[in-house]
Amino acid sequence: MSYQGPLLIREPELRWPIVILAAIITTIIALVAAGLHYVAMTQPVNSYSGPRLTSALRPGEPEFEQVREQIEIAQLLGTEQIHPFNSLAVDLTATVRNNTGRTISGLEMRGAIVDAQNSTVRERTVMVIPARQTALEPGEAIGVRVLLESISKDSERGNMVLEVTGVRFD
Questions:
Q1: Are 159 and 105 in contact (CB under 8 A)?
Q2: Which of 82, 83, 166, 169 has the greatest count of CB atoms below 10 A from its CB?
Q3: What is the largest CA-CA distance in the chain?
Q4: In this model, does residue 8 exceed pLDDT 70?
Q5: How far are the Cα atoms of 9, 19, 144 from residue 14, in angstroms, in the given order?
Q6: At residue 102, does pLDDT exceed 80?
C-alpha cells in the first residue's frame, strides 16, 4: 500500500457536520468575546483611590484652607493618550511648591477631569509624599503626575483639576 498523504474526509456525509460544528464553535467564541467587551465598556467607571494619608489635615478642618493656599500648584498640563477599545488616558502633570514654611511629611492630591457643568468625568487620588520622597522642605518643589485612565472618547472634557486633599507636617 502506498502513502496517500494526510487523511482527508472524502465522504460528504461526514465532512459537513464537522464544518458546521467548527462554525458553531467559532461563532460562540466570537459572541463570548464581544459580550465580554460590551460588559467591560458599559460598566460604570469607579474612581480609583490608592492608600490614604493617616492623621492628615483634610478639607473642612480649620487650618486646612489656609495651608492649601500656601501649597502652590503650577504648570498644570494634561496629555491625552488613545488606548485600545475606544478609551482615553489623561496624564496630568504639575509642579507643586511648598510655601507653608513647614516641612511636609505627607501630601495627598486629587486629579480630575470635569465637564462644562463641573461634574466629574474621571478622578483619582494619589499620595505624593511619602510615596515619591520622604518629605518636602519649605520652598522646595516636586513634580506630580496623576494618570486618569478609562475615559470615554465621547465624554465631554471641560477642565482639569489638581488639588490638595490631605497634608501632614512633621
A1: no
A2: 166
A3: 97
A4: no
A5: 7, 9, 66
A6: yes
Beta-bridge partner residues of 48: 124
Residue 28 has pLDDT above 90, yes or no: yes
**Using CA atoms, how far apart are residues 125 and 131, in angstroms rounded to an integer?**
13
Q: Rounded CA gap, 83 and 24, in Å?
A: 32
- Using alpha carbons, select from 133, 124, 129, 125 the residue that is nearest to residue 151: 124
Determine the Cα angle at 162 with ends 160 and 163, to 5°: 140
CB of 83 closer than 8 Å to CB of 40: no
Say how far apart CA 160 and CA 123 lie, in whole Å. Answer: 10
Distance CA 123, CA 40 (A): 19
Residue 132, number of CB atoms within 10 A of its CB: 14
